[in-house]
Amino acid sequence: NQQDQSVYEERHLRYISPLGKGNFGSVELCRYDPLGDNTGELIAVKKLQPNKQSNLEDFQKEINTIRSLHCDYIVKYRGVCYSMGRLSMSLVMEYLPYGSLIGYLEKNRQLINNRRMLLFASQICKGLEYLQSMRYVHRDLAARNILVASDTLVKIADFGLTKIIPFDKEYYRVTHPGESPIFWYAPESITESKFSHKSDVWSFGVVLHELFSYCEHNCNPKRLYMQEIGNDMQGLSISMHLVDILKDNWRLPAPPLCPPRIHSMMTACWGYSAEERPTFSTLGDQIETSIQD
Ligand SMILES: CC(C)(Nc1nc(-c2c[nH]c3ncc(Cl)cc23)ncc1F)C(=O)NCC(F)(F)F
What we know:
Helix content is about 35%, strand content about 20%.
């Protein structure tokens, strides 16, 4: 059946519309229509940015990463599509019609109560627990990289920056930080480019903040941090100012109407040193208990 299709022929790919720009490439909505009668399935096709050799290796790694992940809370790999005689290739993923979590929360704000928010948080947490069991560190956890499959299911996506932790180490050190989403980064990721499951926990805390702020753009993490850092930019880079206020124990304020128990979970994720932070299984249990109440 179409489900375990792994090679998609370019001639049957019908372009529909752009979905967005991710790490290393753009993603398009397409219909795979071998019968030519518009009955084919909708898929998300991630094309590699052209002619950047380094990106090709990274793209291959991203494909191998997503191909190895089988979890209800992670966007599904469908296959690859070769074009230009196997010179360039695209990653084919399932298409989630509800789009990214940010747009969904903004559109459906009135209809989503805390229980549903906690359901989404527990699904993301379970997806991260699974990633950790596979020794993967996502490194780009943010609401913009969470997709909505239905009114009751969200999935982690965009594995462009995901790395495997070497078997003999607790963390992954990045050589080329690139343009980093520093407002979602743990302090050690900013200062030492160190990434671990515990730095993913920090980012999960920021995703919790985004969830319970309904991804309101006037209280998004970057905006709140920049307000605190203020305009007293004496030449020190923004990331050094950010680390300074984190050292002084300043943290993102509780979102309006955020349940105290959830805010305490966020602040636990934001322990300055990695070992202070909870594990995803502890967080998962706490979220489950909050859902029961
Ligand atoms: C770069 C891209 C395309 N951006 C977007 N995807 C989708 C979007 C909507 N439905 C989708 N189904 C599958 C996929 Cl891979 C993406 C989408 N909708 C809006 C986007 F900005 C993306 O991949 N974002 C990371 C993700 F949100 F997926 F974590």
